[in-house]
User: What shape does this take?
Amino acid sequence: MIRRLTPRWRARATLAALALPPLVHLIPLDRIARWIARRPMPRPPDDSVDDPALADWVDRVLNKLPFPWHRTCLKRAVVLHYLVRRAGRAAELRIGVRRDEHDALAAHAWLAQDDVPYLEPGTENVRSYQLLTAFPSGAEHDR
Assistant: This one.
């Protein structure tokens, strides 16, 4: 199945991929997450958005850009967290750590919906991380 995004959502995703990743280097993550959570979610959700296509588009954009935009799990998760909320769907931004095969500490960021990794390639890999923190979808801010 070919997944497509409307030109409007491609533009929105591209702009988010250009604006948010540099902020990860400049602003504490909890402030970025609070800003995202404060933005009102549309009611009803925008069903025209194919979330996997949105994630694919964000990956393509971030992979083409240089530092400070180039794709990392944290930058990807922040951009997708913003976009998924703008589409009217709740998600958590999660950060976890684990020991890698060389016993070094490794960190990872991903989205989750209903405690399940969301829009994440290799979900079994995510389950090996010990959750450190999660930034809520902002549902408590939307009430």
User: Anything to note?
Assistant: Residues 138-143 have pLDDT under 50 and may be disordered. The first strand starts at residue 92 and ends at 99. The radius of gyration is 15 Å. Residues 112 and 118 are 5 Å apart (CA to CA).
